[in-house]
Design a protein that fits this description.
N-formylglutamate amidohydrolase, N-FG_amidohydro, two-stranded antiparallel ribbon, nine-stranded mixed sheet, alpha/beta
Length: about 280
């Protein structure tokens, strides 16, 4: 893996170079093994939290981990194009617009002992801006090259906080073109529901049950690139113990292995259906 500036990453994309890089400030990583009409993203995978923010933060390391999406990058790591956040959403949230990306409160609890100074907030927002410059360049390249593109926007959610039965998988589709992409959305939902988990873990898959797909990442791509479908794909955190902060690697591997085949198959079907 190389360490590259945002400008160099964008230049590599424009020149269609294969590369694996972390951004110079270590805020996100991008791997491109081949230019294909699909992208895998794990924007909430990151857990880094700038040390200069520690003393002022009221949330514990566990509080932050609980609301992040650990292991989502590992679930998609085998695919040709993988974009992942390295920083915690508690520093700045890549799935919120810039004006809302730096939290004042998080999940009902005040985040900072003292209001965050503007210079510290700006440092975080510059990383948010840089990430979206790369998102734009990458999606623009793929849509121009292939005509259409599909982005698998991988997230996870804390299922045990719900007071009702919730699905293993949830697709949020309220901000995408459901009429145009209906067949592909349903095919993805169906494919996810067929994944078999160890230890009698159920595999159910629903649309807009727990989340509706209101994230900024999805909206940014959808608003700028009409021929790119973003599939906001949430897995319940069946792959860890939410309360003990323990990861179940055999479940993570199950997901990763299942997506190795199912995801490119779905992407190929999407391309064949919509590239005409």
């Amino acid at each position: 893996m190389q360490r590259l500036s945002v400008e160099q990453i964008i230049l590599n994309i424009e020149n269609e170079e294969a590369f694996h890089a972390v951004c110079k400030d270590y805020s996100f990583s991008l791997k491109i093994e081949a230019y294909v009409p699909y992208v895998c993203a794990a924007i909430h995978d990151g857990h880094q939290f700038r040390k200069e923010l520690w003393d002022n933060c009221l949330h514990s390391e566990y509080d932050r981990w609980y609301e992040e999406d650990p292991e989502t990058k590992n679930m998609i790591a085998s695919h040709p194009i993988v974009l992942a956040g390295c920083d915690s959403r508690f520093e700045y949230d890549l799935n919120r617009p810039p004006e809302e990306a730096v939290f004042e409160t998080a999940w009902g609890k005040q985040l900072w002992r003292q209001p965050l100074p503007d210079h510290l907030k700006q440092k975080s927002l510059l990383k948010h801006l840089a990430f979206y410059k790369v998102v734009y360049a990458l999606t623009n390249k793929l849509e121009k090259k292939f005509g259409v593109c599909v982005v698998y926007d991988m997230h996870s959610y804390n299922w045990q906080r719900w007071d009702r039965e919730v699905p293993t998988w949830n697709l949020g589709t309220s901000n995408i073109d459901n009429n145009r992409f209906k067949a592909s959305i349903e095919a993805w939902r169906q494919s996810l529901s067929e994944i078999k988990f160890p230890d009698q873990i159920a595999s159910t898959s629903k649309i807009n049950d727990t989340f509706q797909g209101n994230g900024y990442f999805l909206k940014f791509i959808t608003n700028n690139f009409p021929n790119t479908l973003v599939l906001a794909t949430e897995i319940a955190k069946i792959y860890c113990d939410e309360y003990q902060q323990i990861i179940f690697p055999e479940v993570v591997t199950t997901v990763s292995d299942a997506l190795k085949n199912r995801l490119p198959k779905h992407a190929s079907e999407f391309y064949n259906m919509y590239s005409r």
